[in-house]
């Protein structure tokens, strides 16, 4: 029997992080109200508040495991809805650091689905909890607090309907899951608190995405082709099988070298990648829509856990807490891990203490942040402090990627770390370390540019994207 810790928790934002927070709160609050600005669709559809949903959303292996834990049967339901699944290493092509990984069973499952479908299933499952109520078309405009502002006592909101007036939704706990544009830093300041320190890694990433119906066997039986950008070749792409026999192709470039949205330029960019698999796969494919772009200037981490003062009754989660370079595919999985961490606090049977929860959420973020921020710092043009450890790790990872070309055990160890299943230290196990040092090779030279495209540019030292 779960301990009920309060009458109502209010979650701001009804995307993945908000829904998963609501899922764990539903076991410990009499009512959980999710307040969402958008009108939520009845099924799997794009919506304004989640513009990134048009682009590839890889669910990391650990995210898939946690979703199955929080929402039992999640993977089976995704499969029943038509999501292709496969072994992460054996049924996908990984080309990272200029190396094509050798295949082999990883024991990890890749669930391939569009972002709207993932969100729709999570929303459907979370909405089914009797305690959960989702209020859509409601703008959160601020917090309600005690007179001395030491405690957040609710959320102020306005319904998106003519003649609406501001309402206060009282709450024992308010969880901000409004994403990257979260106003909590400004709202804290207005209440007399310091803003959290912000860490940023400016990667100047551009995504352009298009949906296809590919010819049968265009990528063999594989579920995905992943080509990562490297400092020598700052372009990449991900082609992923989806529900409804579609494939989604996201092309990407860092440090301002962005894929165009005109179809010819898009195709030429695909041909300029370091590996031909994606260009070959789409050559005879039928595009189902026009290319759409997304700009992602920087990974951003808010250090709320380091604030000396923070109001009671308030938490922050998901992208509002930390937004990762999406190339690493971490955001949804980290949101799921944060929900697990919050659940551990709720299960103690006492009202959660924000400073303690935020400290634990920071621990959840540490590893994925070190992977994403550390990986981005391998690009010499990206500004940021490179500790000796960062330099050594990046050099070693380069060798891991080289060794994965010949040795599937090393590829398996790598995808377990990048999938957030194993800690990065597992790549230093004696057996792996010895094989990496023995097997790794030097990076091959990048191929020539494709006709119609000037090829990847060495970017300028600073990005001016924002
Ligand atoms: C281009 C791109 C590609 C990505 N690819 C991947 C990937 O491959 N794998 C992966 O795991 N993650 C990926 N991510 C990250 C992923 O989208 C997020 O981490 C994930 O959606 C969780 O974010 P969130 O719920 O915290 O915030 P968001 O998804 O941004 O949602 C915030 C929600 O809050 C609502 N909201 C905002 N303000 C208000 C307000 N004032 N009142 C009420 N509601 C409000 C919005 O409408 C929205 O529903 C990608 C991100 C980007 C930008």
TrEMBL record:
InterPro entries, alphabetized: FAD-bd, FAD/NAD-bd_sf
Pfam family, one: FAD_binding_3
Domain FAD-binding stretches: 10-346
Protein name: 2-polyprenyl-6-methoxyphenol hydroxylase-like FAD-dependent oxidoreductase
Ranges where the record places region Disordered: 438-466
Composition bias type Pro residues, residue spans: 445-457
Superkingdom, natural source: Bacteria
